[in-house]
Sequence to fold (409 residues):
Amino acid sequence: MDDKELQNRFQAQVDAEIKIEPKDWMPDAYRKTLIRQMSQHAHSEIVGMLPEGNWVTRAPTLKRKAILLAKIQDEGGHGLYLYSAAETLGISREEMIEALHSGKAKYSSVFNYPTLNWADIGAIGWLVDGAAIMNQVALMRTSYGPYSRGMVRICKEESFHQRQGFDILYTLSRGSAEQKAMAQDALNRWWWPSIMMFGPHDSESTHSSQSMKWKIKRKSNDELRQDFIDATVPQAEVLGLSLPDPELKWNEERQHYDFGEINWEEFWSVVKGNGPCNRERLAARRKAYDEGAWVREAASAYAKKKKEQTIAG
Amino acid sequence: MSTNQDWPLWEVFIAAKRGLSHKHVGSLHAADSEMALENARDVYTRRKEGESLWVVQSKYIFASNPEENDAFFEPAKNKVYRHPTFYELPDEVKKM
Fold:
C-alpha cells in the first residue's frame, strides 16, 4: 500500500472509532503529536507533585497528611502510566526525562504557581484536579489505545483528589473568619490559573484542529473550559466563597455561565518559562533525579549480582 | 550521569481474586523481577485491585501482527456451527 492509501485507511479507522494500537501503521505526525501530548501530560503529573510536597510536613492533622501523601503517590503512579503509554510509540523514558530536565518539554503551567498556605492545597485539589479531570474524562475516548486505557485508570483514581480538595475548602470556609479568609485568598489566586489550564482559545490553538480530526482530542479547549466553569460555579456557592471574576454570570439564553477574558499575557509568559516558580520546579526535578542516581546504580548492581549468583549456583 | 537505561521493561498482570485469570494492566521498568513485583504492587494495586501479581519481561511476549489479522484469524470466520445458537431445537425440547 502506498502512503496515501495507508493514510486513508488510518483515518477511516479513526472515524469508525476503532482504537489505534502500538503496532498499527500511523502517520508520523500523529505519532509525534501523541508523544508530545502524552509526555507533557506525564511531566505534569510528576511536576504536579512538587507544589503539594511543599505542604506534606505542615498538614494540619495526621489524617490530612496521610491523605495528601496518598494523593501525591497517585500522581507519581499516573506519571508512570503515561510514560509507559508514551513509550509504546517508540520514545524511551530517558529521552522524555531529559527533555523535561533540559526545559525542551513543557508541563502544565499551573504548577509554576506557588502554594503559599494550606488552603492552596484545597484549591489545587478542587480546581486544578477538577480541571484536569474534565480534560481527562474527554481523553478516555482518545483514539490511541494505550493513552485511552491510561486515562480510564487515572480518572477512576483521581476523583478522590478533587473531593479531598473540596473537603479542605469546605472545612475552612466553615471555620473561623480567618480560616474562611484563607480559603478565599487561595481561591482568588488559583481560579485564573485553573481556567488557563485548558489552553488558548480554539482559534489560537496551533494543534487543535488536526488533533480533533485524529480524535486525539475529543473536545476543544473552549468547550472543556466552559464545561468546567459550569460545573464549578455552583460548587463555589456551596462553599460560600466568591470567584474572582466580576463578569461571571449565568446566561439564560446560552444556558452557560459567561466569564471574563483570561490574561493571555500572563498565560504566555508562564508558558515561556517566566512564571513565579518555573526555575524552582525544574531545579527540584533535576535535584531529585541526580540525588537518586545512587539508588538506581545500587539496584542495577544488586540485580546483576543476583543474576550472577543464580548462574553460578 | 547514571540512567536506568539497562533496566528492562516488564508487563504487569493482576488477578483480582483467587480463582480468576490474570489480566494485563500495564508495564514498568525494573532492574529485576523482585523490584518489578514491588513496583507493580505500588503502582497497580494501591486500591486492592488484586490478590496476585505476575510480571513478565516484555521481550518474552510475542504478539500477532494486526496487519495480518484477516488471514491470521480467518479459520474462525466461517464456522458459525461452533456456536450453540446455530442449531434449531424442536419445540418439544424444553431445555438443553
